[in-house]
Design goal:
The structure holds 2 protein chains of 2 kinds.
Chain A lengths: L7 H7 L7 H21 L9 H26 L1 H12 L15 H5 L26 H18 L6 H7 L4 H24 L6 H4 L2 H22 L11 H19 L1
Helix pairs in contact in A: 1-2, 1-3, 1-11, 2-3, 3-4, 3-8, 3-10, 6-8, 6-10, 8-10, 10-11
Chain B lengths: L2 H7 L9 H7 L4 H11 L4 E4 L6 H10 L10 E7 L3 H5 L2 H21 L11 H15 L2 E7 L11 H10 L4 E7 L17 E4 L9 H12 L15 H11 L4 H14 L6 H23 L10 H18 L3 E5 H6 L1 H9 L3 E9 L5 E7 L1 H7 L7 H8 L6 E3 L21 H4 L17 H9 L5 H6 L2 H5 L6 H15 L2
Parallel strand pairs in B: 1-4, 1-5, 2-3, 3-4, 6-9
Antiparallel strand pairs in B: 6-8, 7-8
Classes of the chains: A mainly alpha, B alpha/beta.
Chain lengths: ~260, ~500
């Protein structure tokens, strides 16, 4: 892929975000970072069963793809959150050496930090108690379920490759729960590789097969969410269904190439 | 049939093959490789698929890539078939003890040749610690593979198994297990979304390499068929292999049965006449008898086989008459008739393609692909033509809709479930396992007489008789013991 061309996953995640807007600049930056992570992951040497470089860098790339990909999804669904973060990072008080309370958090921004009780729609619930996590219960009902139903009705049978065939066996009610669990598992597995917390050698745990699986899963989860997002009736900057599908299929082809 | 002939044609279940035969006759597509990769990698996986879909083969292939089968393997692989009668009837602590005993024995047997020791008591906590210790000592993560764990007809809940599955899983130990479409009860502690990834074993004609995979199986198992390759210009063996694979909805066991039948009757090139006859034969000799075979091992769900048969007749009749290969069934109908629909999926009459698709007549439903093999029986003229062949190769047809307000499936009523003490098949006399359409490799008359003279009268007696005792009977040697075990395995296990 020529370097000037946008990576299909970045395109799918960013959609038609206006380039000159602040949000467009954030999305463009994240898209470039994502393309870089995938590009670097591709040049790892997966030909050997155990390769130190793969074991050390693989988890980093997998987690990076998840974090950057999810940030782009959040930018589409909750621009307020990333625009505020941008302002904070541009403020003179922002210091890279200090923990930034406003930073995007895996638990809280992407995955809910606590479970909402049974009645989501209780009128007495205050807005601050309504989680805005990307894969939280409210996003599930408001964005993911309707978009997921639209997507499967709009995309013709036989298109979208294996990932979409698998997705057609998931019911709209369980889509978010399932993808949340996949995302959480991939994130935790890659985090353990970054934090070096294993008592067995890193290379034995993060062998080539494991890393390939982890990278595949990180890209598959992010792409799946991005494809569904682009089918949302009330989600801004969606790609046309045909373009979204083309991107989704070319990502799968790239992943197949990585897997050999 | 002569013994050699029998051995030649025997359709082995993957778990009954020795490694050399397994490697020779099992072929995997790119899509299978994707599943194998998930089985080798860390993380809990439930491999879901109907009978003969190739779940065990995938598990065994993954196992062969792990240590100690593969000395270079970066993880230790433990494959355990749970085809063990006492597990079916036990529950609670008893189940745990038997299960753990089998697991310990298996781990010891696998590690003996390395050599490594494995010391644990037959309780989950002890095994958990011993496995963690093993992982740390050897410096490898561990993959536990449980085959045939979830028997639909099991009287007691499967909760114990899924509890163990969950407890044994850790950051260095991952569990993988095969399950069936009808397994929906996981117990209260096991959350199927959080505690495992469910991977469906599906082979669909729109997957890349579908035709090629079935061609490779033909080349490996039925080389004689190459002599009968089609001569028509628009047909070649790969296309026919793909069509045959599609005719059985990608089910590998049915495909092998089909090729066996074609090989036996092939005298001319593989044209539409021979294909028509073979598909019709498979429908009457394999598919419908399968419902009969499955019925006595479904335990409390045995009465659901009759409604399943009624549903099958309706689906195939309506779709056959209107020339459709897909059925879209309203979700309220599925909710009411879920178990019979699961049974049809399990036996390969149907395959789910989409669990939520909009009906033109309103509402949403599940879209099923119907087995073209069975469908042919319901098509006017019962004849495969070039036109039909091409039409079936096109996956994008509109489905036939069964709406909740329609009367087509309204007449199917669900009977009361029977709560018996054990599977009906175990109480059957051994004559039930005689050679028939349901058991094409069943017991011969001589075998049955020999067994009965040794007071082995029921399927249960036979299942519980050890191999050495069978081997000691007159006219029964190791080959016949293997055959008996295979037929008992087919009868009792899913």
């Amino acid at each position: 892929m020529p370097s000037s061309e946008l990576h299909p996953l970045a395109r799918l995640l960013g959609g038609e975000c206006p380039k000159d807007s602040d949000l467009g600049k954030i999305v463009a930056h994240l898209g470039k970072t994502l393309a870089g992570l995938i590009g670097e992951a591709r040049i790892l040497d997966f030909s050997r069963c155990e390769a130190p470089q793969v074991s050390i860098l693989g988890p980093y790339f997998a987690r990076g793809i998840l974090e950057v990909g999810f940030s782009m999804l959040l930018a589409r669904l909750d621009p307020f959150r990333v625009l505020v973060l941008r302002q904070v990072q541009q403020s003179p008080d922002y210091e890279v050496e200090r923990r930034n309370s406003c930073a995007l958090q895996w638990k809280g921004d992407f995955l809910p930090d606590e479970k909402v009780d049974e009645n989501l729609w209780r009128p007495s619930r205050k807005p601050k108690d309504i989680t805005r996590a990307l894969l939280g219960d409210y996003h599930d009902h408001v964005f993911w379920r309707p978009s997921f139903v639209n997507m499967r009705d709009n995309i013709p049978e036989g298109c979208g490759g294996q990932w979409l065939s698998d997705l057609r066996l998931v019911s709209p009610d369980s889509f978010t729960r399932q993808i949340r669990s996949r995302a959480e598992r991939a994130y935790t597995a890659s985090s353990k590789g970054i934090h070096h917390e294993f008592v067995i050698p890193l290379a034995a745990y993060y062998d080539t097969q494991q890393i390939l699986e982890l990278l595949t899963e990180a890209i598959a989860v992010t792409s799946t969410l991005a494809l569904v997002l682009n089918s949302g009736g009330h989600i801004p900057f969606c790609l046309a269904s045909s373009e979204a599908l083309t991107c989704f299929e070319s990502i799968q082809e790239e992943v197949q190439e990585i897997n050999g | 049939m002569a013994e050699e002939q029998y051995e030649q044609n025997l359709i082995l279940a993957a778990e009954d093959c020795d490694q050399e035969t397994f490697d020779k006759i099992h072929k995997f597509s790119r899509s299978d490789d994707r599943i194998i990769s998930k089985l080798i990698a860390h993380g809990p996986v439930l491999l879901q698929g109907g009978r003969g879909s190739g779940k065990s083969a995938l598990l065994i292939e993954a196992f062969s890539k792990l240590f100690p089968q593969n000395p270079e393997g970066s993880a230790i692989g433990i494959y355990l078939s749970l085809r063990h009668l006492p597990l079916l009837r036990s529950s609670g602590k008893d189940y745990e003890t038997i299960f753990c005993g089998l697991l310990i024995e298996r781990i010891r047997a696998l590690l003996r040749e390395v050599p490594l020791e494995f010391n644990a008591e037959p309780v989950v906590g002890s095994i958990q610690s011993a496995i963690a210790q093993l992982s740390s000592d050897v410096g490898k993560r561990i993959v536990l593979m449980f085959d045939d764990a979830a028997h639909i007809g099991r009287e007691t809940s499967l909760a114990e198994f899924f509890d163990i599955f969950r407890t044994l899983s850790s950051s260095t130990v991952s569990c993988k297990a095969t399950i069936y479409p009808g397994v929906t009860q996981f117990g209260t502690r096991f959350d199927v979304y959080n505690d495992a990834t469910v991977v469906d074993v599906t082979r669909r004609e729109d997957q890349k390499g579908f035709d090629r995979q079935f061609l490779e199986v033909i080349e490996a198992r039925f080389p004689k068929l190459k002599e009968f390759a089609p001569t028509a210009s628009d047909l070649n063996l790969e296309k026919v292999a793909g069509f045959l694979g599609q005719s059985v909805l990608g089910n590998m066991r049915a495909f092998v049965f089909l090729c066996n039948a074609i090989q036996e009757s092939a005298e001319q090139s593989l044209g539409f006449n021979l294909l028509t006859q073979s598909l019709l034969d498979l429908t009457s000799n394999y598919y419908w008898p399968l419902l009969e075979e499955v019925s006595p091992k479904l335990g409390k769900y045995t009465p659901m086989v009759e409604p399943a048969r009624q549903i099958a007749n309706t689906l195939f009749q309506e779709c056959g008459t209107s020339g459709k290969r897909f059925a879209l069934v309203h979700r309220d109908v599925i909710a009411r008739l879920s178990k019979p629909f699961e049974i049809l999926e399990y036996v390969g009459f149907t395959a789910r393609r989409d669990v939520s698709r909009g009906l033109k007549s309103g509402g949403r439903g599940t879209r099923y692909a119907l087995s073209p093999c069975i469908l042919l029986e319901f098509i006017q003229g019962k004849r495969l033509t070039s036109d039909l062949f091409d039409r079936w190769r096109n996956d994008r047809e509109e489905p036939f809709e069964f709406h909740v307000k329609g009367d087509k499936l309204a007449g199917v009523l669900l009977p009361e479930m029977v709560h018996t003490g054990e599977l009906a098949i175990l109480q059957e006399p051994i004559e039930k396992l005689g050679k028939s359409n349901a058991y094409p490799y069943g017991l011969t008359q001589n075998m049955m007489e020999t067994l009965k003279s040794a007071e082995i009268n029921t399927v249960r007696d036979l299942a519980e008789t050890p191999d050495d005792k069978l081997d000691a009977l007159p006219y029964i040697g190791p080959a016949k013991v293997k055959r008996i075990r295979n037929v008992v395995g087919q009868a009792v296990w899913m």
